[in-house]
Known about the structure:
By secondary structure, the protein is α+β, with helices and mostly antiparallel strands. The chain has one domain: Ubiquitin Conjugating Enzyme (Roll), CATH 3.10.110.10.
Amino acid sequence: MSLRLRRLANEQDRLQKLFGAHPLVSVRPTAGNPPDRYTVEYRIGGLERRPDGTLVVRRQHQMEIVLPAEYPRMPAACRMLTPVFHPNIDAFTVCTSDFHSAQETLADLVVRVGQMIAFQKHNVKSPLNGEAAVWVEQNLSRLPVDPSDLYPPESGEPQR
């Protein structure tokens, strides 16, 4: 088995172990053996902009993760399947380049994107959505939208 396939198999095992019974995050492989594409469902509060311009809290979000042939040297491609109003998320992509490294696991990525959706993490210096960046700067006292800890207790990660 190639190094890449071994890494993908290990990632799948880790995702199942950490998120198989997680109350707020579900991760489902959707293509590849071992998987190189996943759908992630988050059950946390995040913001959605309605067509009339109002912001509402949405409590269910779905994201797709696609792992390129060069993964883990190249970052996973992430896109939201449900609307999210956030400075680092647009209709086509989730900006993960601010924290990508070859040592980062898919579990780390899943948690970080969830933290972004909940407004626990954001970067207004290089936004994909300038309107959301302005909103964040004007509404810091309202953040995070959801303070839930997304790290599974058995992950060994410090609780944040």
